[in-house]
Amino acid sequence: LGKGGEKGESGEPGAQLRFYTWEEIQQHNVRTDRWLVIERKVYNVTKWAKRHPGGQRVLGHYAGEDATDAFQAFHTNPTLVQKFLKPLLIGELAPGEPSQDRDKNSQLVEDFRTLRRTAEDMNLFRANPLFFFLYLGHILAMEVLAWFMVLYFGTGWITTLILAFILTTCQAQAGWLQHDFGHLSVFKKSSWNHITHKFIIGHLKGASANWWNHRHFQHHAKPNIFKKDPDVNMLHIFVLGDTQPVEYGKKKLKYLPYNHQHEYFFLIFPPLLIPVYFQIQIIMTMIRHKFWAVSETFPRPLWDGFYYMRFFTMYIPFYGVLGSLLLLTFVRFLESHWFVWVTQMNHIPMEIDCEKHRDWLSSQLAATCNIEQSLFNDWFTGHLNFQIEHHLFPTMPRHNFWKVKPLVKSLCAKYGVQYEEKPLGKAFIDIVGSLKKSGDLWLDAYLHK
């Protein structure tokens, strides 16, 4: 069997392949030494991690583990990606080693992979271009309508409020649309998805595609896992789940009065996430990773900042510089509320904890829930009411989630995996309820443990 540090772990082409045990593989799970397993093949991804399009953290989250299902979930063309994997191959699992690490249910894992192959045979990973063309069309139509409305009716208070709500709707819907292309779920060619993603998130949203990729793929890889999912990194402002509040309470950590977090949530999270926190993150990420640098084909500052140039060009003639800036801030404020309630209703009320090394199906179902389907819910949430199906199959076009849903529910029932679905209103209420529960756990631990 191969031993760590011996010849063959460099991933160099032509290096001698060896057999490894899970015990050996699990030792290579630090930033300077990362191995992972895909379909029983062992890869050293230490050097490749910095070049990984989805960011190095995603690979790090699976270091020392079986990453087969995550690999299949994120890549639309695994055969093409194999050419990048081949130089990283250092060996394979020893014949006596199970395909799954940490005593995972091998039959459940195999049944899920069978389900995925069934979905592929049903062409559920094939997008309907007309759906996304019309979706983009209705966003652009609202943008045009908003501008002509100001041109015709002027800048009165009523007109401005209506304008703000229309622009907010455009921003929210563009956010759901860029999400589709970011997950490579529209075009067969990844390059087309990447280009369209940059256009929509840059030109229609004023954000960075690179920042979104590096953040969002971590969330999908390890949802609701502390130190791995950035969406549950609350910067000591909130405590989430059942474990973190007790830990904070025992350590007498009180950055804020967490027993009131379900109340100050309304003052901090929905109104400030997009206008403040995300904007700071985007700028810091662009500087840290040099996304501001001029690319081979287009200056990134112009690509990512085109939205702002277009917005101010359109509205400064009507509102002036200060008025246009206030209008944009108000739109971001409204959009932030929409975004927070929709994105958090699927995750905050679910299990939030440290890494438990579950299989792909179980880990995604523990962290996500669905919202009942309706035409409004589909549109309002960008089909994120099918959060379970989206997390299991991130590259599946959203208009096919309802088709795979019965298969997922059947598999969950077979293995006793909880499949949670609720009305939209209850999902919103559960966000506040879960924050209150966590806050009460913190207070009890803070006072009595």
Automatic annotation (TrEMBL):
Residues annotated as domain Cytochrome b5 heme-binding: 17-94
Keyword Isomerase (UniProt): no
Keyword Lipid metabolism on entry: yes
UniProt topology in membrane: Multi-pass membrane protein
Keyword vocabulary terms for this entry: Fatty acid biosynthesis, Fatty acid metabolism, Lipid biosynthesis, Lipid metabolism, Membrane, Oxidoreductase, Transmembrane, Transmembrane helix
Superkingdom to which the source organism belongs: Eukaryota
GO annotations of cellular component type: membrane
First and last residue of the signal peptide: none
Location(s), subcellular: Membrane
Molecular function GO labels: oxidoreductase activity, acting on paired donors, with oxidation of a pair of donors resulting in the reduction of molecular oxygen to two molecules of water
Transmembrane segment boundaries: 123-141, 147-167, 264-287, 307-331
Gene3D superfamilies xrefs: Cytochrome b5-like heme/steroid binding domain
GO terms, biological process: fatty acid biosynthetic process
Recorded metabolic or biological pathway in which this protein acts: Lipid metabolism; polyunsaturated fatty acid biosynthesis
Family to which the UniProt record says this protein belongs: Belongs to the fatty acid desaturase type 1 family.
PANTHER family reported for this sequence: ACYL-COA 6-DESATURASE, FATTY ACID DESATURASE 2
Name the record gives this protein: Fatty acid desaturase 2
The species this protein was found in: Pterocles gutturalis (yellow-throated sandgrouse)
